[in-house]
Design goal:
Rossmann fold; 19 helices; tRNA (guanine(46)-N7)-methyltransferase activity; kinase
């Protein structure tokens, strides 16, 4: 390859191919100018240049980054970019069960739709909901696509038009309708391609769509075509207002700065949740068991438990959790007494000590001694999370035991205690009007998160740079045209161009933090005011960084480890 730039025309886009200043890394010159390497006192070694580019953003290298990447949200997406765009909203079917649109979950979900509509976007709604006999809309209507569209119309006070998921028909219907219409695609529950995350199905679903807004946080633990596969086929994939609010609640659960922090654990299936419980043992100041998992802990502690209450294969996991708690010197609280019913007489109830013979009885709820001990411990907490069912058995609706424990926590929510309830409809009834309590409906998502697993629906969203770039500080004149070099490496290309073109600003995006630090040291040493470098993975954060620049983006160069490099000119 000659040192003079070769220009390859590809339709209306110009691709520039340039000679490298190092044999192992290709660099890019600007237009038809020859490239002369800039000289600096501290030379960047070839070893640093060749170091792996798999490093994540240095600002996000804490232990929670995998679970909570910085994603692009509707609240920070430029509103003007929504105008006349076709925007598809993957909504949460839970809103179809709400009787009161002022409830926070439904209100956030509906505000996403209204915001997009008022921004001038053509809105398409898509969702998946059950159509069995056990589910009806608040009006009592069967949840067909037509009746769901009517329900959404009444809640949004906008006309929602149902359309069939047939590409040609769907688009012709949209073109024939008035500009003020919102469209609802038929129920994805009926399409196998949705659950299978079929790429062809996802591509058809995204046909003609510019931007996709995911507001179905309760589906983030699933791999669906409408939440994961669709991300490949749109200009932007961002989180809606409801999604963002639920994500904030998830972060609040993992964040353990407030102490003491106690987790109350209900429900069963300890084996399935062992990894999550180990995480809670490692972060909390104690665990309180109020569900059937308490019997697995008792079994591990050597307390006699009827065989029918013991979960198969749970002993090893329960013993591991107990040992982890002992190593951290934190308490594991289990019931001392239990409300029980006779096996063959559900109306006869007694309070039994866990040390007594429990054969022939069924556990229902925690007893009064257990209740007082738990209240005493929890009253000193600054943070409490309750995840799982209220009591051992849901066959009775007596308001004692754990119900009284929930009521005892109510005053704490009015003080400085951070209180979160996860995954129980009874919690919603008790605290739905309280602004001081976090209510998270989908326990499955939280359990997956606590197990340390990535949430596919969250990971598929576009990334956002986690910090605001103050362009007035970065550049002497932030109104100048901007040139961005993705994978800027040692920065020699940008430093050379910054020296030649004082009328432009230059920005390098590089994953290797050591290379970026070296470049920033040179900027500081030589007081250069038209070049800057950021440590980031530009594959995911490019849009969020560059969109805030006040001037015009005129050129983007992309460095890749190949024999030639291409530059896309945006002029």
């Amino acid at each position: 390859m000659s040192q003079i730039t070769d220009i390859i025309h590809c339709n209306s886009v110009k691709l520039f191919r340039h000679k490298s200043c190092f044999p192992s890394r290709k660099q890019i010159a600007f237009k038809k100018t020859k490239f002369d390497a800039a000289q600096f006192p501290s030379q960047v070694s070839l070893k640093l240049v060749n170091r792996s580019l798999e490093r994540e953003d240095a600002a996000c290298d804490n232990k929670n980054f995998i679970a909570f990447p910085h994603v692009q949200t509707l609240s920070n997406f430029p509103k003007e970019e929504l105008f006349r765009k076709v925007v598809m909203v993957r909504f949460n079917s839970v809103i179809l069960q709400e009787n009161n649109e002022n409830q926070s979950e439904a209100a956030n979900a509906f505000s996403t739709i209204k915001y997009l509509y008022e921004a001038g976007a053509k809105v398409i709604m898509v969702g998946s909901w059950s159509e069995n006999n056990n589910f009806t809309l608040p009006s009592g209507a069967y949840p067909s696509t037509e009746s769901v569209a009517d329900f959404l119309s009444s809640m949004l006070e906008l006309r929602v038009v149902p359309v069939k998921f047939v590409i040609g028909y769907m688009h012709s219907k949209m073109e024939d309708s008035k500009n003020s219409d919102i469209f609802l695609i038929e129920n994805l529950f009926h399409f196998k391609g949705e659950v299978a995350n079929c790429s062809k199905f996802a591509k058809k679903l995204a046909s003609g769509v510019d931007i996709i807004v995911n507001d179905a946080f309760s589906e983030t633990h699933k791999v669906l075509a409408s939440t994961v596969g669709i991300a490949r086929f749109c200009y932007a994939y961002i989180a809606g207002f409801h999604f963002e609010d639920e994500l904030y609640k998830m972060k609040n659960i993992v964040n353990s700065r407030e102490r003491p922090y106690i987790a109350i654990i209900g429900g069963g299936k300890l084996v399935d949740k062992a990894n999550a419980l180990r995480f809670l043992v490692s972060t909390c100041d104690g665990l309180v068991f109020v569900g059937s998992m308490a019997f697995q802990i008792m079994h591990a502690l050597g307390i006699p438990v009827p065989l029918k209450w013991v979960e198969l294969g749970a002993l090893k996991e329960a013993a591991s959790i107990v040992e982890s708690a002992k190593s951290r010197n934190i308490p594991i609280v289990i019931p001392k007494d239990i409300w029980c019913t006779k096996d063959h007489d559900s109306e006869h109830m007694e309070i039994l000590s866990v040390d007594s013979t429990l054969e022939g009885w069924q556990p229902v709820d925690i007893g009064p001694r257990s209740l007082q001990e738990m209240i005493s411990i929890l009253s000193k907490c600054k943070k409490i999370m309750w995840i799982g069912s209220l009591k051992f058995s849901s066959s009775r609706h007596d308001k004692f035991g754990t119900f009284k424990l929930v009521e005892a926590l109510r005053p704490l929510s009015q003080s400085s205690c951070n209180l979160t309830f996860v995954g129980n409809v009874e919690f919603n009834a008790l605290f739905q009007k309280s602004s001081n309590v976090n209510l998270v409906k989908n326990a499955a998502v939280v359990w997956e998160l606590l197990k340390g697993r990535k949430l596919p629906g969250l990971m598929a969203l576009d990334r956002a740079y986690p910090f605001r770039v103050d362009w007035d500080v970065v550049y002497g004149d932030p109104a100048r045209p901007l040139v961005v070099d993705v994978g800027s490496g040692n920065g020699l290309f940008l430093f050379g161009m910054a020296r030649r073109r004082k009328d432009m600003n230059f920005l390098g995006l590089e994953m290797n933090a050591k290379l970026v630090d070296r470049c920033l040291e040179n900027i500081d040493q030589f007081s250069i005011q038209n070049v800057y470098f950021i440590t980031t993975n530009a594959t995911s954060t490019f849009k969020s960084i560059v969109s805030s620049y006040p001037g015009e983006l005129v050129l983007v160069s992309v460095q890749v480890i190949l024999q030639c490099i291409f530059v896309i000119e945006t002029l």
